[in-house]
Amino acid sequence: MANYRINRISEEIRKEVSDIIRNDVKDPRIAEFSSVVKTEVTGDLRHAKIYVSVMAGEKERKDTLEGLKKASGFIRRELGKRLDIRHVPELQFIMDNSIEYSVEISKKISELNLNQENQNDNK
Predict the structure, then answer these.
(1) Which residues of the chain have pLDDT under 50?
(2) Dihedral of CA 67/70/76/82: which sign?
(3) pLDDT tens, position by position, 80-93
(4) Which residues touch 104 (CB under 8 Å, ≥6 apart)?
(5) What is the architecture, at CATH level 2, of domain 3-97?
(6) Which pLDDT score, from 0 to 100, does residue 1 have?
């Protein structure tokens, strides 16, 4: 299958799963500040890895991942209703820490800049 088609389907799945999680899933374990970062779909469209980022503590991340795994059947059914593809992929949710990592790096850069300015002011 053409790589551009897989990328298009992957992006469409990401958008739809994000919308389903935000608007249709009513599980209280799923954190409000969770977002679908990336989706990887296999070439035969049978499996999809969905990377989710949660801006919360470790307990909330685990609860969100558990809630998403429990709701994967519902999410898959809703995805099948929204997309016109022959096979709706099996969904596998994976925690992605890239947003938290980038926030941490941004804080460290800000601290370094502040320290640099303080050193220049003291001279």
Answers:
(1) none
(2) negative
(3) 999 988 889 999 99
(4) none
(5) 2-Layer Sandwich (3.30)
(6) 60
Amino acid occupying residue 2: A
Report the b/e string of 75-106 with b at 16+ CB within 10 A.
bbebbeeeeeeeebbebebeebeeeeeeeeee
Place of tokens 């779909």: 41
Delimit the domains of the chain by residue range: 3-97
Closest CA to 50 of 84, 79, 85: 79
The SS3 of residue 18 is helix
Taking each helix axis from N to C terminus, what angle separates 3-23 and 72-82, rounded to the nearest 10 degrees?
120
Return the closest-CA partner of residue 64 out of 82, 81, 47, 50.
50
Residue 47's DSSP bridge partners are 90
Among 34, 33, 31, 39, smallest CA distance to 15 is for: 39
